Structures are given as structure tokens and as C-alpha cells.
User: Fold these one by one.
Assistant:
Number 1:
Amino acid sequence: MREVLSELDITYELRSAGKGSAQRQELEKITGGSTQCPFLIDPNTNTNMPESKAIIEYLYKNYAKFTPPSELLGSVSQVITPLLKPIYKVIAPLQAGSNREDMAEYENEIAATKAGIEKEITSNKVVVYSYSLSPFCTEAIAVLDSLDIEYENISLGLEWIPFLINEGGSQKRAALGALTGQTSLPHVFVAGKSIGGLYEGLIPALEDGSFFDIYQSENDSK
């Protein structure tokens, strides 16, 4: 909790409520008998609350631009993303049927799917294409939830693996690749513009403020 307070550059007073201390007696009066620590008192919002996890969520929600995703998942992403992206780019069109004899049929399907995607990303301020079972997609959606903004989550299925992806999901994945060069999910669009995935797109855009610039420009134009 103290790490988060420091990270967010929040000025705070630390009171040690050790056994027998005046601060412990004070805490018992505030809580009605409990001495559970840590315990946060925020006079800015008249909030009193225990439990580290709940306090950390509260601090990020009230004092940060967004709640950051898992650091562990970020480390995993740095290793596997560069390895898997080239593979996904090859597999996505094949899974959608690019190797079929009737290429004209395939191209028509992808063209129609592209048109559908264009409609989706221009009809909503923020769109995230996702898989229900992907931890990266789950984290991206949690980050968007922490922003308290409007967004549309479009799931392509449980995962990209055959029998887990939705009907038409393979075509949509291939069409996303044809439109943007990215076939991995999550894939986030803001005001019709692709900003990429979670760690290589959404998080950097939030950190440098470009996400909010694009989002606000979309609001100002309406």
C-alpha cells in the first residue's frame, strides 16, 4: 500500500498502531473495536477502509489515471509476444480460409468483414476485440473499466483455437490483420484508430496521455 502511495506521489501521514500505543486505541475508536491494519483514512473523500487489496484499488481509482495491469503478465508478454505475433499473422488468414480453392469467395468474406469492423470502430468511442479466456484481454478490459469510460467489448470467442473461436471469428481476426497488421488480441481502437494491444498499445497510450487526447477529440467532435 505504501508503495502505491509513493508511486502516485500522494502525501500521507503514517501512524503505527502497535500494541499498547495511543494510535491503536485511536484506531479501535474509529473502527468500533477492530485493530486490523492497514487502515486508510482519506479526508478528501471521507473514506475509511481496511484491507490492502481494497485500499490499493481505491487509490488507483481515485488518484491515478488508470489501474495498471499485472506486472507478472507484463513480463510474460515481453517474452512471448515477439515470438507469437509472426506465427499469428501466418495462422490467422489460413484459419479464415485463405488456402481454399475459391479465393474470390475468401476475399469477398474478408472485404465484408472489414466493412463490419469499420462500422463497429466508428460507431463506438472505444472498441476492444477480445477472447473470453485470454488473460491479456481480461486485463485490458479491467483497465478500461477502471477509466469509467464508454467502450464496446467484441469477443471473437473463448480463444483463437479451432472449436473455441466464434463462427465468423476467424474471418474477423484475419480482417483485423488486413486492416492494421495486427492479428493478436486484445486489439483496442479509440475514435476509429487502432492503438494496438495491452502492453504495447493501450498502456503506453494511457501513460503518455495520447489515449485521452484521442478520446477527448472524439467527444469534442460530437
Note: The chain has a mean pLDDT of 91.
Number 2:
Amino acid sequence: MNRFFALSRTSHGVLDLATPAFCALLWGGRFPNWTVILLSIFTAFAAYTAIYALNDLVGMAVDREKFSKHELNTGYSVEASELRYPLARNILSIKSGLLWMSFWFILALAGSYFLNPTIVFILIAATLLEIVYCLLLKVTYLRTFVSGLVKASGPIAAVFVVDPSPSSNSLLLLLVWIFFWEIGGQNVPADWNDTAEDKGINAKTIPIHFGVEKAGLIVLVTLAITVIASAFLPLISPAPLGLPYILASLMIGFIFLLQPGFQLNKNRDGRYAAKLFDKASYYPMAQFALISIILVVTTLIS
């Protein structure tokens, strides 16, 4: 099973579950009933498992081209498995990968339908966008914007679990927060860490197109937007998230995003890009822990 979990980057996918969980709690202002929670966890896990596997399936040829010229880099602590990219390295057959991805995608579709049929369309859109994202690797660095939309699809879907008719303005604020976190904390650092391999196949990424100096500035700006946007997120929640929550949220943003972002911008080394990627991967988990504590305390004292 380790080969299949490596295909779906399950260690990272589990961390990703925190983002829709946080957004559902933020939007609803309370914990849903256990039936909804369990079905949501199952559906989100299935969706992330399928789409991460799809990424490797679509990008298999390019990954093989990379590894024919370079050894597999050390990666990040959240994706450090020696079995990474099992399709490109012939550790797993294409047929097995397709069956694995299809199995989880069907389960994700079923779970989405039972939670809210609208989520089915969000899942399909995210799947198509993921394919587009992979196919644009050698076309344009603007693919990073597609990545932001894909990563936002899960949290947006979580909102529809707790609110069938969400406010478009509030959704836009949530989208901005996730979109810029993905670009500055995940996508650009990942491409930065893979610069040597990407140059070998003539890939189009932000670090390659703009150079490390401008890429570092892009990282800082996008992470700053993320942290600033987080201060306004309580506006979309019915929960009493006052100044202590906002200050704690800003501190989380500084520790997990801005601090490693400043280090990367200063040193401009792939190792610091990997460190930023790792810390940023835990940012939604920290936000989820914060709002969970607030909601539990509020429930106990009310």
C-alpha cells in the first residue's frame, strides 16, 4: 500500500484536510453533527487522494524526463517518502495507478453528492483544472494561478457542506486567503526547490522565468496578502472571534509563513524553499486548531 499512498502523497493530503475543516468551522461558527463530520472527512480524503494521484498520472511523462537527467531530490519533510513518483520510477504500473485514482474519485463523487450535489460540480471542476495545471508546465508560469484555484476548491466545497447558499462576497474573501497561501507557501516554493530539474526539461515556472530575486519578492507579497486576509476572516463567521483570535491568527501567519518567507528571500536557496513549503503546509492545521479551541471554550462557557 505504501506505493499507492506515495502516489497520492497521502502524508501531505492528510495535512490538506485541515483547510476545508477550518473553513467549515469558520463559516458555520460551530461543529456540525458527527454524521456530517465523518462523511466530510471521508469525502475530503477520497478527493485529495484521487487528485494527487491524478497529478502524477498526467505528469508521468514529464517526471520521467526529469529523472532521466537528475536524481530524485530530497523533497520536503511532509513528502519525504523514498517511494515518491512511483509511476515515473516504474515502482507502480500505470494500470494500478489509474484504478487507484478512479476508485477514490468515484468515492469522492458519491460522498460529495450526499453532502451537497453542488460539491460534485466543484470536484469535477477541480479535476479538470488539475489536468490543465499539469499540462501547462512547459507552456507558462501562469499555471501557478490554476494551482491556487485547485487548492481553493476543497475549502470552498466545505462551505457548501454547512451552507447551501453562501454569500459570494464572503466566498471571495476565503478564496483570496487560500489562493495566495497556495501560491506563496506551496506552489512557488515547490517550483523553487525543483529548479534544477525543471530547467533540464525547459519548464516554465516563476523562479525560472523571473529569477530567484523576483521570485522571493513574489513569495513575500503573496504571503503578506494571506496573513492580512486572515485578519478579516472573522467577518464571515457567526462565531464570536474577537481581537484575541485575530492576534493569534496573525502570530500563526508570522511563524508559519512570513518568517520562513523572509528567510527564503534573504538566502535564496532551495533548502529554504523546502523549509517554507513544510511550514506553510502546517499553516491551515494551526488555524484549524486555533478555531477549534475557540469554539470549544465558547461552548463551555456559554
Note: The first helix runs from residue 2 to 7.
